[in-house]
Amino acid sequence: MATKELASCKQCRRRKVKCDRTGHCCGACSRLRLNCSFGNNKLTSVDDREPASHVTEAGIKRLRARNACQQCRSQKARCSGTGPCERCQARGENCELITENPLSSGQQPCTINNHNSASLEITYSAGVADVNVLLLDRSAVKQYIEAYFDNIDPISCVFLHRAKVLSDWSRGKIYDDLTVLICALGLLHNGHSQQHRDVSRCWVRAVQSRIMAHVERQTLDQLQNIVLLVQYHFLISNIPETWNLISLAARLAFTLRLNYEHHGIEPAKQESQRRLLWAIYQLDRMLSGGVEDLAVCPVERMHIRLPCDDHSFHRDIPSRAPRLNDYEHSDALSVGILAYHIRLNATRDRILRYTKRIRREGSAPSLTKPTLQVLEQELKTFLEHLPDDLKLTSDQLLLMSHTKDAQAYNMLHIHWLQCHCDLYRFLIPGIRESVDSHAFRNTPTEYVDYCQKACLESALRLCDLWTAIAQLEFQKPVNDVFFAISIYQVTQIINHLCQLLPQNGPHCLQNVKASLYGALDLAKPLRKMYPRVESCLKDIGHLLQVLGQNAGDMQKPTNRGPQPNLHHLPSLHSLIPEYSEQNGVVIDLPALGISPRTVAAPEPLQAMSTQPPHTLPVIPQLSDHIVRPYLQSGECDSLNFVEQTEFEPANIFDMQFNGYYDPVQNDLISAFVV
């Protein structure tokens, strides 16, 4: 009878190697110093407490890491795969560990950067492409928290108290999700590289999954996390998620009754709650674009004070800030520049609601002249109540150029001037925001001239302001996505009203074009923070190439077909996503780097900004030009409106009058016009 052959030891079976089955320990286990199942000898020196990811299935310590860091890859050296790896630690090098998830080939790899002593490691569990563990030392966490408070734009309404956050974090009293979100925003503000975006996106994805899994929680901490999520998605140009999360934040804020003053709590906490709601309001007004159907934060239900000055907030001093529309009891020392931005946003929202209502109804704008005059007066009142240190003069612009409020100061006056353009542009034929041809024909010539001249004057004053900002060489002149949109709007206005420009002087076509090229250069750095502005900047470059070439055709009122999205009436490059009636889906084209208008063969932006070569013109003193009144207060009242009866016949092939006008394709379109 044949003898039965001994089975292989367990270790060799796991390793799938041949076992010699000799003695109490096979040769393979003896060589690798493993515990062979044939005997009880303890030969292994492998630590039983070694993490499972660091050993093989047979219990042998892994000699190679699953993913090597960038430095070890370049040198073709063995990497431990930890963050930082053993080789980089021994050499004192910065370890850049690239952690890839093999089960999610369609996603971008998550990049981890080791800054000095910061040890960042991201692992995946159960094959799920998500972050489970974040290992940061305390110095790195503090660095990211401080970066958040140092670099965040004050216009975004900082509602977290810096000293309290750092104090609670040092004592372990702050929630982990809030810490991770602050660190993600701090990392994003501290650097705009793709590496920073990938790391912060990994952190935020894990926190957002936990928040959405417990969306039933109705607490102040939950609301803070959601608002930080909204701000993060807005910064990375993820507008669809921003849209959906802002409505959740607004509903929760009103559920917690943050729209009312809460007495009996410390001033800093009370102010933090006010700013939390105002942060939601600011984002809501930016997203809704004057469309009441899209607004989720009704301003008439906000019975709280405006944000107070930062000094009072940081020192836990009770707020003396007024209400939103209370100009009589305003104290310049009790509010900061953030409060004036909120007031101006409220005015801009009313302007957009008014102009879009006129466009929907199809009525002549002259019939609502009293409403336009009220909005004019509102803008004038806003300027009159600005404190002296926030008014726009050449000297004040110079003083503010290197302060922490420089960007907020610049954007305040850009917004104010843009509000005037938004108020008058509905009578500029050829742009998307104009009224239809029927309403235009029924508007008296005097009223058309008044609105066009006022709109052009505002656009020219914006050009002068941008030129002055460029000449002062601000360290960070503007960091707002609205800046690029404003340049596009002004370029459109000047392109359609260039026949009203003087032949010579500071506002001739050549000088204005140079100013717009300078503004385009100022806006280029926005691409690092806001990827969605790429398509907007490309369209600006295309418009500048053909600026003033079709001046004779721009003033022809033509019949246009039904406007797309008649209910929302979004402007090009606005934050309102485009809705497809056929497919029933919302597509955010700018987030994909695609212009809402079809642009043929776009050239590289770098080439556009240098063709033709330009020099910035010297502008007049700001105190004499930019801040002077628009028109005399009684000028609009004295207009004798008569019904317009004679107009040039409409040309249905004139694409310049509707929202699809493309200057790049102008020659192609002209070939079909008889």
Short description:
This protein is mainly α. Among the domains are: 1-62, CD2-Gal4; 336-665, no CATH class.
Question: Keywords for this structure?
Answer:
single chain; CD2-Gal4; elongated; disordered C terminus
Helix content: 40-55%
Biggest sheet features? 2 strands, antiparallel
Record field, number of beta strands: 4
SSE ordering: HHHHEEHHHHHHHHHHHHHHHHHHEEHHH
Which strand order do you get reading across the main beta sheet?
1-2
The portion of residues forming beta strands comes to: under 5%
**Termini separation:** 106 Å
What Rg, in angstroms, do the CA atoms define?
31 Å
Structural class: mainly alpha
In the predicted model, the low-confidence regions spanning at least 5 consecutive residues are: 41-53, 99-134, 558-562, 591-595, 598-621, 623-635, 637-674
Count helical runs: 25
Q: Average pLDDT across residues? A: 76
GO molecular function: DNA binding; DNA-binding transcription factor activity, RNA polymerase II-specific; zinc ion binding
Protein name: Zn(2)-C6 fungal-type domain-containing protein
GO cellular component, one term: nucleus
InterPro entries: TF_fung, XnlR_reg_dom, Zn2-C6_fun-type_DNA-bd_sf, Zn2Cys6_DnaBD
How would you describe this structure to a colleague?
Among the domains are: 1-62, CD2-Gal4; 336-665, no CATH class. Helix content is 45%, strand content 2%. The protein is built from 25 helices and four strands. The chain has a two-stranded antiparallel sheet. A hairpin with a 4-residue loop joins strand 3 and strand 4 (585-587). Helix 7 runs parallel beside helix 9 (220-235) and helix 18 crosses helix 19. The termini are far apart. The model is unreliable at 41-53, 99-134, 558-562, 591-595, 598-621, 623-635 and 637-674 (pLDDT under 50).
